[in-house]
Design goal:
The chain is built from 16 helices and 13 strands. The chain is α/β, with parallel strands linked by helices. The strands form two sheets. An eight-stranded mixed beta sheet has the order 5-4-3-2-1-6-8-7, sandwiched between helices. The longest helix is centred in the last third of the chain and has 25 residues. It binds adenosine-5'-diphosphate (ADP). Its cofactor is Mg(2+); Mn(2+).
């Protein structure tokens, strides 16, 4: 019997699913994917085949208040009637925070749910939305094994110096430390690079995950040793609408001198800053690259400058650099951004093959005389969750 593996990635306004089918030892095969989006505004369900053909679509224009749970049930109903001859055996969830303790995916039980609830204050914008579908699925499918895959888990191998803020120890003990995020993406890239270039994957690798959320990770000997995101996903690189690294004194200034509330500051730092804030135009890199506005060009310059500076910092954390990988929306699709970062990083021995960089399909984009191999590798966090989830399911049978 072919086994169905359901992957759920839930946020505040959307719930995404990917359904995989596994025959045995090969990688799980994507069978369909889709999402409910526009939750609380104009709910819209869409399901697609792996090649992008629309399989189903529903809208509820007159019912903006439909709950997450009701929409999730609708989605599960569609999935169950499109299992393609497979039997649903397990579900894997992307859960943003696994705290200090979880360095691996975990089979979900009541005790784990209590622990994950306790981590909500560390990720209030994401964790509650990640946990809600776990409860909803347990109601519809009691007994179906569910697995939590954490964005923080891959970084638990970071040495203490990389995880610690120079704060009094009591606060560190409370959990105010650097966790790092995008771990499922970095783990996937690390496994892919191990197939493409095993010797490099065993060396010192920096990965730049440049999507609407953006971060970088230093991976040494296959293990994360440092990353640019910290206590929250606000740290590090400027992003579509997030500031990235900010002198904490700016937050004090906003509070004390400008009288802003915590909520107003949260909105400023998460939603109004980054590429959008600097350009005053848009958070989408495509729009900025096409624009002739000077502030759009400055936003791109600041973004690439910060990536190059962080690359130097990550190389320092690893004692050198053997490979650089670009991934996620901007990393995979933007030759100009990759070119600027590589040119700023020539001091590290990076030499770009300009033609390979411009060619949309090339995986290796460094020149032959480059001391550092530069790759473009598409990430697939859902596949990583599917593989982890299947491994946990199999471990139950041993
Ligand atoms: P998310 O973090 O939401 O998963 P993605 O990894 O899909 O995001 O990246 C989305 C971003 O990728 C978009 O905001 C856009 O700026 C950027 N992007 C996508 N295609 C291109 C492109 N061809 N050139 C430049 N940027 C692109």
């Amino acid at each position: 019997m072919r086994e169905g593996i359901l992957v759920i990635n839930a946020g505040s306004s959307s719930i995404k699913f990917s359904l995989y089918v596994s025959n045995g030892d090969d990688s799980p095969l994507l069978s369909s994917k889709g999402q409910v989006e526009g939750i609380n505004v104009a709910p819209h369900f869409i399901a697609k085949s792996p090649d992008g053909a629309v399989l189903a679509e529903d809208r509820w224009p007159d019912e903006p208040g439909l709950s997450h749970e009701a929409l999730f049930k609708h989605m599960i109903g569609w999935i169950e009637s499109h299992l393609d001859g497979a039997e649903l055996k397990v579900a894997g969830h992307r859960v943003v925070h696994g705290g200090s303790q979880y360095s691996h995916p975990m089979l979900i039980n009541d005790d784990l749910m209590v622990e994950l609830e306790q981590l909500v204050p560390l990720a209030p914008l994401h964790q509650p939305h990640n946990l809600a579908p776990i409860r909803a699925l347990a109601k519809v499918h009691p007994g179906l094994p569910q697995v939590a895959c954490f964005d923080t888990a891959f970084h638990r191998s970071n040495p203490w110096v990389s995880q610690t803020f120079a704060l009094p120890r009591a606060l560190t003990g409370e959990g105010v430390k650097r966790y790092g995020f995008h771990g499922l993406s970095y783990e996937y890239i690390s496994r892919r690079l191990a197939k493409l270039a095993p010797a490099q994957a065993r060396g010192r690798v920096a990965v730049a995950h440049l999507g609407s959320g953006a971060s970088m990770c230093a991976i040494k000997g296959g293990k994360s040793v440092a990353s640019t995101m910290g206590f929250t996903a606000l740290d590090g690189l400027p992003m579509g609408t997030r500031t990235g690294t900010l002198d904490a004194g700016v937050v004090l200034y906003l509070l004390q001198q400008k009288g802003m509330t915590a909520k107003e500051i949260e909105t400023l730092l998460y939603k109004q800053s980054g590429l959008l804030g600097v350009s005053g135009l848009n958070n989408d890199m495509r729009v900025l690259l096409e624009s002739s506005e000077p502030h759009a060009a400055e936003a791109v310059e600041l973004f690439t400058y910060r990536i190059a500076r962080e690359l130097g910092s990550l190389a320092a954390a690893m004692g050198g650099l053997d490979a650089l990988v670009f991934t996620a929306g901007i990393g995979e699709h933007s030759p100009p951004v990759r070119a600027r970062v590589c040119h700023l990083s020539e001091w590290l021995g990076i030499r770009l093959d300009e033609a390979a960089n411009a060619d949309g399909d090339a995986e290796l984009i460094s020149a032959l005389d480059s001391k550092v191999a530069v790759w473009v590798i598409p990430t697939d966090e859902e596949m990583m969750i599917a593989e982890h989830t299947r491994e946990v399911l199999w471990s139950l049978r041993d």
